[in-house]
Amino acid sequence: MVHIDFMDRYGIQAQALSVSDPGVEFLTGTEAAEMSRYCNTYTADLFNRHPTRFGGLAVLPMRDTTAVIRELEYALDTLHLDWVGLLSAYEGAYLGDPRFEPLMLALNAGRHMCSSTPRPFPPTQNPNSPFPTSSKSSLSRTHGSKHRAACVFGHERRRPA
């Protein structure tokens, strides 16, 4: 595998795989759920073939509450991905918005870990803030990357041996 060769050449022992912005949000309905399942299954396949080289974050179809819970359970309990990767906002709402409460309850009930990647709002939806969006995102990305790396390599994996 070319990527493993690259990792070996540059002394990279392991990598955490995730889907970045826009996640699967460029799709709707069944297509978003199917793309989430495809990405999560692909990541799990890499784990199985190279268990010491990859960690991974599940991607979820956030527009559909039923699909998001179903994919959360499948990705973490069946595929045994390490945790969930979320964006900080979806469709103009931060993760603290009540529409995300079912996901937060499911994450908490399963004691699942997640990380959040900054996602700026479009200018027309930007909340009133004394800080420019780019500064907040840049600062969060710097600290978030260190936190995510610590999570991947600092916790016991949930995957069965």
Summarize the structure.
The chain has 161 residues and is an alpha/beta fold.
Structure description:
The protein contains 5 helices and 6 strands, in the order αβαβαβββαβα. Strand 4 and strand 5 (93-94) form a beta hairpin. The strands form 2 sheets. A 4-stranded parallel β-sheet has the order 1-2-3-6, sandwiched between helices. It is globular and about 45 Å long. The two termini are 23 Å apart. The longest helix has 22 residues, at 133-154. The protein has 161 residues and is α/β, with parallel strands linked by helices.
The overall strand count is 6
User: What is the helix fraction of residues, given as a range?
Assistant: 40-55%
What integer value in Å does the Rg equal? Answer: 16 Å
Count of alpha/pi helices: 5
Strands across the major sheet, in which order?
Answer: 1-2-3-6
Task: Output mean pLDDT.
Answer: 79
Strand content: 5-15%
- Shape verdict: globular
- The CA-CA distance between the termini, in Å, is 23 Å
Order of helices and strands: HEHEHEEEHEH
Largest beta sheet, briefly?
Answer: 4 strands, parallel
Pick out the low-confidence regions.
134-161
Structural class designation: alpha/beta
